What does this fold into?
Amino acid sequence: MVGPLTTYSVLGVQLHILQPAANLQSYAAWIEARITAAQGTQVVTCNPEMIMLAQQDPDFAQVLKAAELVIPDGAGVVWALRRQQIGVERVPGIELAETLIRSAALRGWRVALVGGKPEVNQAAVERWQAQFPQLCLYGSHGYFSPEEEPELLQALQSFQPQLVLVGLGSPRQELWIQARRGLLPAATWIGVGGSLDIWAGKKERAPRWWRDHQLEWLYRLYQEPWRWRRMLALPRFAWQVLRDPSSRRGS
It folds into this structure.
């Protein structure tokens, strides 16, 4: 039995917390129930960079506000919620997506993977197809031009997936999903960032120790040093949370 959703704010962004347990398994079960009921859903796996961007970009803030499920991905978001005495666990988007793909293979749901370079998308599709031969899977790379996009959207409509995983990078993928989810109103759409690179074997996730100690972001910076400018949002996020009266324990 999946519990109800409760909404809590972190610097003005509403996070959806499942009661009584906010963890990977409970969120996956909530989404699976939505898929079974054909209730269209946009899922956002939220990190501090997204919260800081929402303060500057009204369009992106509206995406977060409109999404049916915004869950705590980044370690900083979990920390901010725990300061409010809200018991949550970090829910990595890649692990949530993998859990849902396994469920799709068992339940006969169709899955679409959109994003990545052509060779990355193909390798990711082949990886999942090899692991679950019965999985009904469609793949399309993310390097489509505006002229090519109608063909992609038509293919998605023809395929009618129940689950659409979009790896176009944030915030592009969240904005793209919100603008196009009406084409498949009963589907669940989730932005998965660079997950396709990992599924394709082009990159590696942080080792378990780094993940267990909430340092996956640091390992990613080590792999992709060009991200340092984006990472500057992290200390700004922490400073704002510390100064925000509503983010204090017991408030």
Summary: The radius of gyration is 18 Å. The chain has one domain: 5-204. The chain has 13 helices and eight strands.
